[in-house]
Design brief:
This protein is mainly alpha-helical. It is built from 6 helices and no strands. It has helices spanning 2-14, 18-25, 29-37, 39-68, 92-98, 108-116. The chain is elongated and about 65 Å long.
Length: 138
């Protein structure tokens, strides 16, 4: 219980007005428990988290395109800065970087399997972009 109380106190410090809102909206002890323990604030926190994540990834898309494009050259076909449909395994440049290290992106069957979802990437498979100079040694 000490840990829960510590978390509660930290939450009150982080979320200004939370305590007042809890007390204001709760007209009975049951209401207080429902608001403190229920979906109302959890939903608000989830919305904030999703919004922040969306803003973070929106800013990353153009940066990643610049990072994977060779200096002074362009990607063929080009990657759109604001769309995701041509990313991931659907584009040769990003697919090559995301391809699990134990698989060969140059193999047409591997590439097609990853693109169609027929080939499932297990969680323990690390993508090539995580290896120095994109070289994987068994």
């Amino acid at each position: 219980q000490d840990q829960e109380y510590t978390i509660y106190k930290k939450l009150l410090d982080i979320c200004s007005g939370l305590k007042e809102n809890l007390l204001q909206e709760a007209t009975s002890p049951e209401d207080l428990l429902r608001y403190a323990d229920g979906d109302h604030y959890f939903t608000q926190i989830q919305k904030g988290t999703s919004s922040a994540r969306g803003n973070d990834t929106k800013g990353m898309k153009p940066a990643i395109i610049e990072m994977i494009t060779p200096h002074g050259k362009s990607l063929h076909p080009p990657l759109h800065r604001r769309q995701k449909v041509d990313r991931g395994f659907n584009h040769d440049a990003t697919g090559q970087l995301l391809c699990p290290a134990h698989l060969d992106w140059a193999d047409k069957k591997i590439r097609e399997g990853l693109q169609t979802g027929e080939l499932i990437v297990p969680g323990h498979s690390w993508p090539m972009f995580l290896y120095e100079n994109y070289i994987f040694n068994d």
